Fold this sequence. Notes:
With 106 residues, the chain is mostly beta strands.
Amino acid sequence: MRHRTEEEIATANAVDVSALPDPQTDDQRVIAGPSGELERQWLVVIGICTHLGCVPLSYKGEYDGYFCPCHGSVYDTSGRIRKGPAPLNLEVPPYAFLSDTRIKIG
């Protein structure tokens, strides 16, 4: 789980989705919270590289998102694959906001 800044969210929203290997908007990767509004500041992803199952490093890489040093896959602050051999974005697991302070993952 990553708590994103307004700048990180704005950067993720500015990406031309049609240029991505696995096209998804940032809004497609977050869900609504208890208020019904999208909780864009919270990104919940499974931290396993979609190339060969390595563990990417957070806040690393060219897009300050996730970087897999094993084979060079680079993900942005939305967990979307931007460069490297990984074919897919980092997986967003099923999750739900139970309250303003609790999230259930899985």
